[in-house]
Amino acid sequence: MEKYIEIINMVVTRYSERESLIKQLEKIKENPTLYLENNDRCIDLSHDFLWLALVDLLISYGYAFEIDWKENYDTTKYGVTELLLNWSVNFDFQDDSDLYELEAEEFFPRINTLIKGTSCQIFNFDIDSDSYVTTMTNNTNEKKLLDLDNQISKY
Questions:
Q1: Pfam families attached here (predicted)?
Q2: φ/ψ (deg, to 5) at 129
Q3: DSSP per-residue letters across 2-40
Q4: Is the dihedral of CA 69, 72, 77, 78 positive or negative?
Q5: Which spans in the chain are helix H?
Q6: Region for 124 from its dihedrals, namely left if φ exceeds 0, alpha if ψ lies in -120 to 50, beta otherwise
Q7: What does the alpha-carbon distance between residue 3 and residue 6 come to, in Å, rounded to a whole number?
Q8: How many Å apart are CA 79 and CA 47, to the nearest integer?
Q9: 35-54 pLDDT tens trace
Q10: CA-based nearest residue to 89, from 67, 116, 113
């Protein structure tokens, strides 16, 4: 549970939302059926339900977004823009016209290059699916976030 709290503290910018997320995740840990019976992922106790609950909570609070592998850049650009707003960063994507022709695995790393000057970077939370779960933290948290779990990677 400790690593999940650290993740929350690194990707959630508002204190009140951090506290709420942590409380919800603690309740799920104590009573997994709270999550297992109320999600769309068709999972059971044999899955890493606490990791998936964390991911779904971050998505519901707007600190992560999930897209299908075949989703286009425009959808991702909108999601990244929303994540940047959580960090009070208004960013005007420029020189990104070539990204519209790329697949997700190609445009995600390029997005990190584009937003490098914002002091934030995007990361993938692997949920063993054909979708991409994307979250964001500031550059100072990069190494610590990556060291917390092998299911977290930088694009």
A1: DUF6630
A2: -145, 175
A3: HHHHHHHHHH---HHHHHHHHHHHHHHHH-THHHHTS-S
A4: negative
A5: 2-11, 15-30, 33-36, 49-60, 73-86, 104-114, 142-148
A6: beta
A7: 5
A8: 27
A9: 988 888 877 777 789 999 99
A10: 116
Reported as a single tens digit per residue, the pLDDT across 5-36 is 999 999 999 999 999 999 999 999 999 999 98
- What is the extent of the structural domain holding 101? 2-154
Q: What does the pLDDT look like over 130-149, one tens digit per residue? A: 899 999 999 999 999 999 99
Over the stretch 51-110, which tens digit does the pLDDT of each residue have?
999 999 999 999 999 999 888 899 999 999 999 999 999 999 988 999 999 999 999 999
> What distance in Å separates the CA atoms of residue 140 and residue 26, rounded to the nearest whole number?
27
Residue 58: count other Cβ atoms within 10 Å of its Cβ: 23
CA angle 88, 95, 124 (to 5 degrees): 55
Instruction: Name residue 137's amino acid.
Output: T
The closest of 14, 53, 54 to 34, measured between CA atoms, is 53
Count the residues in the chain. 155
